[in-house]
Specification:
Blueprint lengths: L3 E4 L2 E4 L4 E7 L7 E8 L6 E6 L6 E3 L7 E6 L4 E6 L8 E9 L15 E2 L3 E6 L1
Length: about 130
């Protein structure tokens, strides 16, 4: 069983930065790949960034490439999402989620592949 708790959301102006954290409980955190999903009102939940269980592989959706950086510290059971050059279209509820990964490079893209979810943290970017 893994519990995930997000923090770090807030309101910023366009061009600003935020750093989200996802703290996990459980001794097997290093067995899980982690994704940061986001969901804007009226839109489907999408994978913004993902990281493999070792941190060696990462994924970014096209709209955040070059602006967001995902990282993890398995010793601290924490995954981070550094978000720079934020845009109003980044406004959403951001969730971290984890799935057990038997491959050290696997990061799932589908919501259905994730076993554990946090409660979400709101990010609001004003123009």
């Amino acid at each position: 069983q893994v519990q995930l708790v997000e923090s770090g959301g807030g309101s910023v102006q366009a061009g600003g930065s935020l750093r989200l954290s996802c703290a996990a409980s459980g001794r097997t955190f290093s067995s899980y790949a982690v994704g940061w999903f986001r969901q804007a009102p009226g839109k489907e939940r999408e994978l913004a960034a993902g990281i493999s269980r070792t941190g060696g592989s990462t994924y970014y959706t096209d709209s955040v490439k070059g602006r967001f950086t995902i990282s993890r510290d398995n010793a601290k059971n924490t995954v981070y999402l550094q978000m720079n050059s934020l845009k109003p279209e980044d406004t959403a509820l951001y969730y971290c989620a984890g799935h057990r990964a038997y491959s050290s490079t696997w990061v799932a893209f589908s919501v259905l592949d994730y076993d554990y979810w946090g409660q979400g943290t709101q990010v609001t970017v004003s123009s």
